[in-house]
Amino acid sequence: MLAMRDLKPAQLTQLQTSFPELTVLTMADLSETNLNDINIIYGYYQTTAGKTLLSQLLASSHSQLQWVQTISAGVDYLPFKALNDRHVLVTNASGIHAQSIAQNVFGYLLYFERALDQAVVAKSQKHYGIDTDKIVNLDDKNLLIFGPGHVGQQIAKVAKAFNMTVYGVSHSGQAKADFDEIVDDRHYEALLAKADYIVNIMPLTTETNKFFNRAFFDKLTTQPIFINVGRGPSVDEAALHGALTTGQLKAAALDVFDPEPLAATSPLWDDANLMITPHTSGYVQHFSHAYFNVFLPNLTQFMQDGTLVQNLVDMHKHY
Amino acid sequence: MLAMRDLKPAQLTQLQTSFPELTVLTMADLSETNLNDINIIYGYYQTTAGKTLLSQLLASSHSQLQWVQTISAGVDYLPFKALNDRHVLVTNASGIHAQSIAQNVFGYLLYFERALDQAVVAKSQKHYGIDTDKIVNLDDKNLLIFGPGHVGQQIAKVAKAFNMTVYGVSHSGQAKADFDEIVDDRHYEALLAKADYIVNIMPLTTETNKFFNRAFFDKLTTQPIFINVGRGPSVDEAALHGALTTGQLKAAALDVFDPEPLAATSPLWDDANLMITPHTSGYVQHFSHAYFNVFLPNLTQFMQDGTLVQNLVDMHKHY
After folding, report:
1. How many CA atoms lie within 13 A of A58 on its CB side?
2. Does residue A225 register a pLDDT over 90?
3. Quick one: A142 and A88 in the same domain?
4. Looking at the 3D structure of chain B, how many domains does it have?
5. In this complex, do B163 and A111 lie within 8 Å of one another by their Cβ atoms?
6. ipTM value
7. Are the Cβ atoms of B104 and A110 closer than 8 angstroms?
């Protein structure tokens, strides 16, 4: 097993105790002689070194690679065809980031709606007073979530505590807890007319690439706040800039961009009513602990029979 | 009935239809000849005109005043002894502000904990990046709420959706929904050692006046974030300034001050890690509607038998 992400000493001890037959290598241990012994990659992410290594293993007829555990929830960057051809299983880190991302979503909304943006400016001027006409209550507002997976469900749970009405859009349209209604992705247009807030947390696929484009923003009539905590390429940034400029959107918050980092020349930097976070919404304190705990049940099962119990990625859906 | 707060035309029509025997006066209608006819004051607040009028009515042996409906939830400013001597009932606006105040509380917390303060500064510099070591997750944190009334309970409800542990301190120590534990106000000190976040939403009484003073802040060991959405005089502002300066508090947010507005000379304006909102946390869109709906069931009962069904203030507890 190759640990691309460092294991803590206690985690390494736990692996060695539970699975004495398992050899754990780090990137520094790799050589031409042990490369093909790797059966599991723990902590895979799309660094240059990671991409090179994975290509090399998938191209080698002697590679023993059977399972890749990514560090991210979204896995759009993987070479799915090659992985599938070689019958390599992929598991993602879905679920670990849900709490964090939901917290950022409400951080953005409350910053705008409770006029905290004004409060920050007023304090810097030692001015006691804000324009209360700009203060908005979240309760009784309509939240529309594109992608009711782990993260979307946690966003919905908090939204219900704030007494919001929650709508979702998914591929299947299947009902989920805390959503008042979920429609499938061919029937969401009627919901746009109700949306006060729109959140994207869909995986990036060919269908969701540039999903939020000019045609989408042109359908909006309610001046919602738009939040992207999914993937950057799902949003046409020029169209978003346009929608903020024309007022089709009241405000927006973006945590992801295409490409990242956001170019210094992007017009988004100058957009008023836009909050930018640098792909940090999913940041988790004690990530190492949470991540290892997603991996361990899978490893236990894998060592018994080569199968996995959770977070398995569908090689055709790519999420 | 005197309407110190304007009634909307539809509300006035509703009153005239339901209670044809009721005469509704506005402040402009008042004269020496009708002053003593006032039996109800709707929308009372501590303006100079309000205070003068109330004193005059309470001092007049011919006054018919029976009931004062305040515009605020906290009623610490009322002349309780005189009201009690004259057997005047008081109802407050408790409950109307709960959703709004809870939203501000989480707006403050998420602004600090999800490093949105850094994000705002970084955007102004067109800089993509923040110090992720400063990002904190709310889940699994301990929230300590002083005052588990309507507002405190709504704060607790949202905190549970964020997977926080919620403690409360009240006069009775009586259990409430969404609180993991509530202790009485003589036994809260053990909870201070666990507190990541402390919120004050207690009514202002002689017991809560300057409750959050230097002795209180000196007991803190966890560098919590402190939020005051209750009443300004419950906090010793000089002690709070000291606690922010020494780092006893990680950060703070204040919506209320003593006096208001906060003086331009206050050292609080220069405190880093302090958010100031100008008594706007309870701001409610469509307040007029919500307020009238708190009043109406009471008026209906009052017109029948002179009693009230909700939001009655205890003349000895003062809340």
Report:
1. 21
2. yes
3. no
4. 2
5. no
6. 0.90
7. yes
